[in-house]
Records
---
Amino acid sequence: MALMITDECINCDVCEPECPNEAIYLGAEIYEIDPLKCTECVGHFDEPQCVQVCPVACIPLNPQFTESHETLWQKYRRLTAQAGQEAAGAPAASPQG
Ligand code: SF4
Ligand code: SF4
């Protein structure tokens, strides 16, 4: 599953730079996690890094994004392949194809 940030977040800014997938961003009021980018840190670390550093423990599993370990691995591989393409200067996917 992806993780999510609850409204107990105090906007301390600590988790955002720790995410290896750049899935955490400042939303309208509090920090948020893009569930399409969060792999629970699978592929990068043994434990979710944001959970490790959050001082108020407000980052539970997101029940709307139930994913198996294998699915998280596939997401990790997809994300790293995308990052590799962008690093190589490949144009981002566009609606025109
Ligand atoms: S669990 Fe890992 S990948 Fe997911 S938001 Fe937290 S730091 Fe990022
Ligand atoms: S570490 Fe926790 S409290 Fe701080 S910004 Fe992230 S989710 Fe919010």
---
Amino acid sequence: MMEELILKVPPGRICIKDGKCPAGHSLMSRDKLLDGKPAIVVEVRLKGRTGTIYLNPFYGKFEYECDLELAQDDIVALSCPTCDASLTVEDTCRLCNIPMFAIHLPDGGQVEACPRIGCHNHSLTIVDLDAQLSRYYEDEIRFKM
Ligand SMILES: [Zn+2]
Ligand SMILES: [Zn+2]
């Protein structure tokens, strides 16, 4: 049976290794590293400008690098750099009341986060717990060593 739960995990413990757009394109950068791991690369739009944003792949870390200048409280629109599909989802941020965006994970899980710069609301949903958790724990152990 599929199980679904939202985890509360401390920042920096889980590294997203296989983030995808809704159409299944990988969002992992081939050449950009953040904290020593491949960054999540996404197309970003703000006020008519388009750029590229690199997100820290560690869940709960909000560092990013972007070629657009982003200010506190800017609300960005994020999409797949390959197919341009929007990453916006129906769930709204309970703090900002705007739609969240999602990075899809293998086996149906996803990371959702708020697209307002400075808002740190986010959640991690994992489906098929056994398979995913064993993978994550493996990472966590390696990360601590
Ligand atoms: Zn895509
Ligand atoms: Zn928010």
